[in-house]
Specification:
Helix content is 57%, strand content 0%. The chain has 83 residues and is mainly alpha-helical. The protein has a domain of 50 residues.
Length: 83
């Protein structure tokens, strides 16, 4: 039997990442910026990787550095992704 000492479950974590990705997409689209342009601006050379993060595919996720750079690029407060 596996003991789970975590204060959150896998579904909560998936929801958390999905929520952040949706907000990134919303703010990117509201500024009329393509995935490709934003990916390159934050130093991600693979648009496919960026797209997978934004669409929660293949277990790819934005990390804190990505979110920091995205917030700078979109000129918004990073806290908007976490609200």
């Amino acid at each position: 039997m596996k003991n789970d000492f975590s204060n959150s479950n896998e579904e909560e974590i998936k929801y958390f990442h999905k929520s952040i990705s949706k907000k990134v997409r919303f703010y990117r689209e509201s500024k009329n910026i393509t995935q490709s342009d934003l990916a390159l601006d934050i130093g991600i050379k693979s648009v496919a990787f960026y797209s997978n993060c934004e669409n929660n595919k293949y277990n790819k996720r934005f990390n804190l550095e990505h979110l920091y750079k995205i917030s700078k690029s979109l000129k918004i407060d990073i806290n908007r992704f976490l609200e």
